[in-house]
Amino acid sequence: MTARRLANQEATLVLVIIIASIAFWLTAPKYLGSANIVAVLTSASTTVVIGFAQLTCLSVGEMSLAVGGIGAAVTVLGGMLLDQDHVSLALVAVICLIGGLLAGLINGLVTARTHLSGFIVTLATGGAYSGLAIGITKSNPYPTVPPALATFGQGQWGFIPYLAVAPAVCAVLLFIFYRWRRTGRELLAVGGNRNAAALAGISVPKATIWAHTLSGVLAAVAAIMFMGVLRQSVPTIGSDWLVSSFAVPIIGGTLLAGGEISIGGAVLAAVLLSVISDGLVLVNVSQYIVEMVEGILILAAVLADRFRLVVRDMSRPARQLRTIGKATDGGATA
Amino acid sequence: MNEGAQPAGRPVSITSAPGSGNSASGLAASTPAAAPPPPPGGQSRAHRLARLFSSNTTGLILLIAASSAVFSLLGTGYLGSFNLFSLSQQVAVDAVVGFSQLVMLAMARMNLAVTSIGAGVVMLSGTLMAHDGVPAVAALLAGLLAGAAVGWLMGWIEVHSRLSSFIVTLAFMSIYAGVMLAVTHGTEITTLPSSVGNFATAAIVVPQLSILLVVAAAAGVVLAVIYKLTPAGWKMLSVGENERAARLSGIQVSRIVIFGYVLSGVLAAVAGLMTMSLDASAIPSIGSTWLLTSFIGPVLGGAALSGGQVSVSGAFLGIVFYDSISSGLIVLHVSTYYLGLAQGVVLLGALMLDQLRRRVRLREQAQRSSLAAAEGGR
Amino acid sequence: MKCQQLRTTLYRTAALAGAGVVLLAGCTTSSASSSGHSSHGPTKIAAVAGGPNAYFTPWGPALTAAVKKFGISSGTYEVAPTPAFDLTVENSTINSLVSNGANAVMVYPDGVSGPNAELKELASRGVQSIVVGACVQTPSPSALCLATDTGAEAYYATQQLIQAIGGKGNIAFLTGPLSDPNTVLREQNVQKAVAQTNGKVHLVQVVGNVDSPTAAPPAVQSLLASKGSALQGIVSTNYSPSVALADAVIAHPQYRHIKIIGIDNNPAVISAIKSGYMYGSVFQNSYGTVYAGAEILKKLVTDGCTVNPNGPFIHTGSTDRLINIGSTLVDSKNVSQYASGVENLPQMTQAVLASLPKYLNCPKA
Lengths: 334, 378, 365
Fold this sequence. Notes:
The complex is a heterotrimer. Chain A is mainly alpha-helical. Helix content of chain A is about 75%, strand content about 0%. Chain A has helices at about 1-25, 35-60, 65-85, 90-115, 120-135, 145-155, 165-180, 180-190, 195-200, 205-230, 240-250, 265-280, 290-315, 320-330; strands spanning about 155, 160. In chain A, α2 runs parallel beside α7 (about 165-180), α8 crosses α10 (about 205-230) and α12 packs across α13. Chain B has 14 helices and two strands; from the N terminus they run ααααααββαααααααα. The model of chain B is unreliable at about 1-45 (pLDDT under 50). Chain B has helices at about 45-75, 80-105, 115-130, 135-160, 165-185, 195-200, 210-230, 230-240, 245-250, 255-280, 290-300, 310-330, 340-370, 370-375, and strands spanning about 205, 205-210. In chain B, α1 (about 45-75) runs parallel beside α12. Chain C is α/β, with parallel strands linked by helices. Chain C has eleven helices and 14 strands. Chain C has helices spanning about 1-30, 60-70, 85-100, 115-125, 150-165, 180-195, 215-225, 240-250, 265-275, 285-300, 345-360, and strands at about 45-50, 75-80, 105, 130, 145, 170-175, 200-205, 235, 260-265, 280-285, 305, 320-325, 325-330, 360. In chain C, α4 (about 115-125) links the parallel β3 and β4 (about 130). The model of chain C is unreliable at about 20-40 (pLDDT under 50). Chains A and B meet through α1, α5, α9, α11 and α13 of A and α4, α5, α11 and α13 of B.
């Protein structure tokens, strides 16, 4: 049933993306030009990795407010190495990933060991990570990145930006991890029902640590991607990742409460969000109504999935429920 | 096309309350969100609530006292009347923003549109006051009504679409802000009656306490009364704790959820109007920090993100603690660029200390009564 | 059970409130002396930046230099910890600094009229203030505003752009948050410059709300993808879109026919100007703003000067107390002078310092 729900959701997202694309294409024919497709996919690529960084936490029923903070800290780490020490790019990338891993590991360890909620822990550590990034750089960017990274960020192969390789690899690895690896399935079990998972012998702290660590690595991947896109290391990066990090997995069908994830859904959601914001620039919507239109389109897109239910609900108000309600309502007022 | 296999009635899907035993309780890690659906208003919940209140409240009071002592010893001016007065203004607004989120958290929902509602209400009230010669009180009432109306709309959409509150309020975050921008084109309104601006600068009892605290306290008392003394209160909690069980026990979930949304909308409106008074003008960009702030107070105060728990005094004390750290670190002359780092480290350190204290206490409790321990660990 | 619990909570709350009041009353007397500074004392400056941004980088060194040069008692520089430039956060930053003894405040205002409530509060406590980097609406409790003239700057940049594209063609405008009144001012002035061409130049698109490193690149790419071939020029009045534009023309040769004028000193912008891919960038006198601002505060506090309301202040739509600290267009011809990337225009600063007697009435020494 879960699989069916997610498959339906993905199908609807595909449908909505197609409809939106046709609408934009009819209004602005350049929508299907290669430059624009590259623009949409570039933006979707970074967005989806940010979403993945939250998705791993959501899978165990945790949240991370530190995705942006880790992104900023890793950006500064990378910038420092590239700018001052002339280390090879591959080594820098590896160090950045390890940096993200460690930052995530700290989140996971503190959350698991203290029994504080991940929300509060990552609120604090996220502030600390981004504060560190701002502190080291005084909010100045590191100005250069190696040509290879710049090419990775802005180059393209036909319609496909090189950048899209990163989310594709991440998506495949995550899919394998959650579908076929024992640890991945344990993460989902913990997210689905923590107590039951614990009773079944699954280590909840271990799952929590895994989720936050993965999240840190993915945030580092997003940071490296942005270093390529921006051709420099900007320490204020990540300050506006919070909402999109949640929006991408959740519009894609991942449950906020944990236990159910949809990797394909997250990819499609990121594409949808990018299509909408790109299309609105293309059809030259006045900047004063663009935000309103964006919100309405997002709502319309997610409502499409629910359309049938809405109709049923309107035609048949919850009458039976109300009659059931009468039986017990009121009695329990202390 | 979709969910055809679901039985009639309400499918438990995205909108459903998180499954039992979700982790995300705040300070109160010792009391995981309850798994089984207890009878609404039953003994066990009252008992648990009582314990929650006491432990979080005590912890936060200790933390506030300790941090204030440290800041006033190490830096000059922390306990100066000016600093405390401005701190009290900020705490008052942030507390009401937190209450707005608390209502939603109690129902296992979220409201991402707090900022947009606040800004929209401010611009509406401000426009009415400035241009149309409407009496200030009428304009304020219109603002509150607007807050209720936009809350209602989101609630209505949620219960009829069964989308998660996250998605609905995410979309409306853009829609409300967008409508406001489309109408105002981002222009500030500065010609408000002087009484509006003067209100927020007034002090109460002592020069260190802003009158805005009275507004926040009133909002808090109303909430506490709702949760402790009215059926709507425990119904909202029941919905948050286990939506399916609440429905089975006869609660009209749709109606109570919409009520919660309305309450949250009104509280966001109140916070907006308080800010309008503070700024003595209607500014479209107010509240940019609210989204995060709104969660901090309730979660520090012990509300579980998974719903079913509420602590009004905890949410208030939580925000007092958080805001006083921010203010104190500036007084301490922490290097400006490292402020964010210091804030994070202090917050985490303080919470871990408190956790330690709590664990020690819990162990004592467990030794005293094995029965209580069995229930607490459930 | 429930009643008892409620009663306990009530008692606890009452006790807490009582304790708080006693505590506060206790410190009233001790703290009363900290307020009410009068003139003619030492100047203790607090400089507050509106939020983390590279534009503010020269502020710290400038304040240090000014404190040394002008014999100021002390200078503290803080960045309000708010990436969103939130007024509430900024106000609490100022409040903490004033609690700590500052008696002269210069602040980059996070809003056009909102900061006035805070400045009024400062004035009532005997703290002198000026706003720097951007202006607040007058009448304002602050003495004056030392800034580049935002509207005039956008007008100037657009005029330069129109000239660069030969007086006719299509241009686009990229800008910041729509709830920022400076954005409104900038757009009006861009429109004004375009209108003066009598229809020869068309403003074909305005893209707002893109001043963040995450939001700017996709918006720029979408714009170039759809209108790139039809555009002759682009003007950006904000930091992030300027950087994104520079990156785009560095990476994509097909857009290099577009004349682009950006703002500020990001290395990518400088490099694009040097390579001739970007027409120019408007440099603001960030260093001089704080340097001259410190001297003004010292004159107001220590020397007992007052503002001359009939001084040659610039009057814009919202303020009548503006002293222009200056900005300049950096293009391929003069970019080598600004290769260090510091936004500092010393000649303009000296001009402002030399003209201060016209703005301030000072008691004869």
